[in-house]
Structure formats: structure tokens, C-alpha cells
What we know:
It is a single chain. The chain has helices at 19-29, 37-45, 91-105, 120-128, 157-162, and strands at 4-6, 9-13, 51-56, 59-68, 74-82, 110-116, 132-137, 147-153. By secondary structure, it is α+β, with helices and mostly antiparallel strands. Strands 1-2-3-4-5-6-8-7 form an eight-stranded mixed β-sheet. Helix 1 (19-29) crosses helix 2 (37-45). It is globular, with a radius of gyration of 16 Å. Mean pLDDT is 85; it is low at 162-181.
Amino acid sequence: MSNWRHSGIVVREARLRDLDAIARLENESFETDRVSRRSLREFLRAAHRPVIAAIIDDELAGYALVSLRKTSRAVRIYSLAVDARFARRGVGRALLMACEAYARRHRRAALTLEVRYDNSSAIALYESSGFRQFGEHARYYADGATALRYEKSLIPASRRETGNNPPPEGVRPLRGASRPR
């Protein structure tokens, strides 16, 4: 992943030296179900689980942690957090765009994620970015809260609807690809 700018935000692959800032943001952003510092370090070192950093004025403004399995048709956004000091400045959207670019580079058909049912600002961001709810997990979080499952198809709608064009090599088509909500 190369560095790129989006509305004054530098988006780049996170580095091991970002670990303290990412761990701090993780702890500030989530009351429960946090990714441990040790796991964050492992994610930073793993090629198939990159961490994407959003930087504003040399400070970590947010990060996204994604997971890529060899056999999966999707890239899973495992965690995404934005520092409250940088809220409403496009950080979340820039991170989602970087996740999508990563998935496309790896020829995946979709992005998936889970979001807490009562996280209305995150849900609004995901839906305005083209994600659609396709399910839920009851009692997903440590406190028993439900997670809503979201997916964004990266296959153009015309190809999904007609079925005339096969997916790119190595990408399996979506099952039940388009469910209107």
C-alpha cells in the first residue's frame, strides 16, 4: 500500500512504531471487545492482516484493521476506529476507501464487517458508503449486544444483475448477490 492523500488526510499502511497510538485509540474507542495490544502487534506484522492508518498533522486520526483469507471472496474489516478529535473530517470514509482499494488489489468481490446495532454514526457511514445489511449476530459482543452484519459488493451492479460476465479470476461470485433493503 502506498501513501495517498484524501482531503488533507494521509492514508498509509500502519507501522510498528504506530502501535502505541493505535492501542490507545482502540482502548478509547471501545469499552469492551477490544483488540489487545499483543494482537495489534501481530496484525501489524502479518501481511494478510494489514492495518491502515489515517494521519492528520502527524497524528493518528484513525485506523482500520482488515483480514484477508486465501479462500475467502471478501476482505473483512475487523476493526475501524476514528479519534474523537478528528470526527466529522472524513477519516472514516478515507479508511473505508483504503479498505476497498486493498480488497480490489487482492481481487476480492466484497468487503464485510460487523457493527454494534446501536452505533448509529458508524451504521450511517457504512450505509452511505454502499454497505448493505445482510444479517445479524445475536449476543455477539461481550455485553450481549447484537452485531449487524454488513457487506459491500465490489462487483459492478451490471455484472451482478445480468450474470453475463464472470467474476475476475480467483474471485467467486456472491451468493444471493443483491438483496434490496
